[in-house]
Structure formats: C-alpha cells, structure tokens
Amino acid sequence: MLNCKEATHLVSEGLDRSLTLPEKIQLEMHLAMCKGCRNLKSQMSFLRQACKSYLAQEKGQTDSTRSR
Q1: Confidence at 58, pLDDT banded by 50, 70, 90
Q2: Which one is predicted more confidently, 68 or 43?
Q3: I want to staple 19 with a disulfide (CB 3.0 to 4.6 A). Which of 23, 27, 33, 37 is the partner?
Q4: Is the CB of residue 41 less than 8 Å from the CB of residue 64?
C-alpha cells in the first residue's frame, strides 16, 4: 500500500508519462481511501489544464498580432 508521499509522486508522474499497470492499481487503491490525495490529483489536473489553456490562448493572440 502506498503512503501519501508515494501517491503524490505517482500522481505527478502520471501527468508526465503513462503509469505502469501496477502503479495505476496501487495509486487507484490509495486514492479510493485518501481524500487528501484525491484533492491533490484534482488540483494538479486543473492546474495543468489551466496552463495549457493559457498557453494556447497566448499563442493565438501572438499569431493574430503577427498577421496584422
């Protein structure tokens, strides 16, 4: 069973790469029992998506500025 520190590491790793099947199983088991780590995963996913959206918006504004 993972502790919160290990689960946090896997949540972070899972945003950057595909987790192995054993890693996924262990993480999902931990997340099923730990509200704090579920919240962390949700917050990290939200921040990652917000950053992607911001960068896409900035890129769009830069492209439209160049075409003027």
Answers
A1: confident
A2: 43
A3: 23
A4: no
Question: How far is it, in rounded angstroms, from Cα 58 to Cα 42?
Answer: 24
- 31 within 8 A of 37, measured Cβ to Cβ: yes
Cα atoms in the Cβ-side hemisphere of radius 13 Å centred on 51: 7
29: which residues sit within 8 A by CB, 6+ positions away? Answer: 1, 2
More confident residue, 54 or 59: 54
Q: Which amino acid is at 22?
A: P
The length of the chain, given as a count of residues: 68
* Contact of 63 with 30, CB cutoff 8 Å: no
